[in-house]
Design goal:
The protein has 198 residues and is an alpha+beta fold. It is built from 2 helices and 13 strands, in the order H-E-E-E-E-E-E-E-E-E-E-E-E-E-H.
Amino acid sequence: MKFLPVALAATLSIAAPAQAATIVDTGTPPDASWGLSLGPEQSLAGRFSLSSATTLTDVQGYIKSYSNSATLTIAINRGGSVPGGVLYSGAVALAQGASFQGLGNLNWVLDAGDYWVSFANSGSGMMPGGAPNPLSKAAYWKSSQGWKGLYDPSRSMGVRISGVAAAVPEPATWAMMIVGFAMVGAAGRSRRKVAVAG
């Protein structure tokens, strides 16, 4: 049956993945000469919320690195008043100077809720402050002190997060998918009957 591939392709195209969209964009801090230290003994984090299940595809922080061969580790932590356990993490080599740097081509699946994005630097650097659209909360950490709050929006770091929200099919879409799968099933049954008869 020639309509089997067509029916299958049409059915699968209904559930085709959406394009990544910006979830968080604090904007670029206007001045890279001051901010929050980000060195080997420190981590910085900011809290963000998701209104629906989302797959994160890109996570970046505005970093000013002074080191030649430093590594930036980015993690997504559970929500709460301070960052909780790490859900996902990855590392990337840092370039010197001030720019947005981070991870791409991710497939980090999160449910709706509150999360923290955290940044750790193996070398010497900082995250410039004063991002124009600050996150609701920010925190910093030193290994001997645990997480401490920094809620002054003027000290907010630059963060960009992109992702794809989980699509919830409309009733009409569900109906089309069911009809498509029924057509695929019917084509498969008729092929088996022809094979048995032959």
